[in-house]
Amino acid sequence: MRLVMMARNPNLYSHKRIVEAARGRGHTIDVINTLHMHMNITSNRPTLRYGGKTLPLYDAVIPRIGASVTNFGLAVLRQFEIQGVYPLNESVAIGRSRDKLRALQLLARRGIGLPVTAFAHGPKTAEAVVQEVGGAPVVIKLLEGTQGMGVILADTAASAVSIIEAFSAANLNILVQEFIADAGGTDIRAFVVGGRVVAAMKRTGRKGDFRSNLHRGGKGEAVEISEDERETAIRSAEALGLNVCGVDMLRSKRGPLVMEVNSSPGLEGIEKSTGADLAGEIVLFLERNARHGATETKGIG
């Protein structure tokens, strides 16, 4: 197959591993900086250009779109889709996952377990929102935050109201969620590929930090997950229409609770923690599902 990866930094562990896995199985793969592409939107002849050249028609595209360039990245991915290139994750599915509020609404509609969550506009309803999720302590999240940034634990109702008011004054959108004490500062990352959980790790936050993100100094270790957790991860991926994703869950007395579904999950922490070949799983999924022989045109690399 002829593959293309949309990625701004080809030197990231995840991107190098996917390239290694693709080439190791005899495929060609080009890695293209998403922001350096431009589109020609013409009836019946949609094209993408990069470095002064028109890109060939690929068999599949692997989108690794950073949160800061979501809108442009999705536009480029849609252009690939219009050309008939098979996407690892479809643009509409990535868009659902990147909109945290919409993602939670879709998961809730499927009856998937979630922390009690409230959303409101403006500071006037701050006290009501805190009470809506059961009172302090509460977790306050920026809708645009990633990798644990923009996530705050408010220990008291007064501090929660103050934080909500401050974010509102800065015109930032937030979610307010109940604090799940049962989780004990840990969460589960289940890696889903093609409707299967292919690896899972437990992440534990550094001492004194309730956030368990590895980017915030947390540590990961392989973990056996329950059938309920496995089913929750698979149903979450299906609810958002994602072929590949990382589903982050908290263990609670009322079962697994989904915090977030990541449509571009990193591979380094979970591969090193579990020994799983997740890059290989991604390439195998494309082999089974992408359209073969879309073009004989040579790639750009």
Verbal overview:
The protein is of the alpha+beta class. The protein has three domains: 2-89 and 283-289, 3-Layer(aba) Sandwich (Rossmann fold); 117-179, ATP-grasp fold, A domain (Dna Ligase, domain 1, 2-Layer Sandwich); 182-263, ATP-grasp fold, B domain (D-amino Acid Aminotransferase, Chain A, domain 1). The protein contains nine helices and 16 strands. Strands 14-13-12-15-16 form a five-stranded antiparallel sheet, sandwiched between helices. Strands 2-1-6-7 form a four-stranded parallel sheet, with helices on both faces. A hairpin with a 2-residue loop joins strand 12 and strand 13 (196-204). Helix 2 runs antiparallel to helix 3 (91-98). It is globular, with a radius of gyration of 20 Å. The chain starts with a strand and ends in a 12-residue tail after the last helix. The relative contact order is 0.17.
- Please write the string of helix (H) and strand (E) elements: EHEEEEEHEHHEHEEHEEEEHEEHH
Binned strand content: 25-35%
CATH architecture of the largest domain: 3-Layer(aba) Sandwich
Helix content: 25-40%
Instruction: Output mean pLDDT.
Output: 90
Which outline best applies?
globular
Gyration radius (Cα, Å) is 20 Å
CATH class value of the largest domain: Alpha Beta
Main sheet record: 5 strands, antiparallel
N- and C-termini, Cα separation? 14 Å
